[in-house]
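Sanity check record (used in CI):
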Amino acid sequence: MATPPTKQSILHLYHSMLRTSQSFSSYNFRQYFVRRTKSTFREIQSETDPAKLAAFYEEKAKELAVLKRSAIVNQLYGGWKVVVEKQQAEHERADS
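Expected output for Complex 1 LYR protein domain-containing protein:
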């Protein structure tokens, strides 16, 4: 029987997935993976079965590796910022 992961290790995995989701340069991908991560971990929050927790942890650890690779590729080929993202203010020249 698989040993269940500790609550601390599940929280660490959750925070790692959120951090990796935030590293996408594309707004749409970034928001999608943040929402998906939060909803996935919210579903497993009340689970007590050790076998299900172990399977969930293994699956999400593999998913984290894929997410990291995808974020790197997205950063390499990221496009323009969309309107809803915070834009950097352009400095205007003062006419003196």
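The mean pLDDT is 88. If this sentence no longer matches the regenerated tokens, the check is flagged for review.
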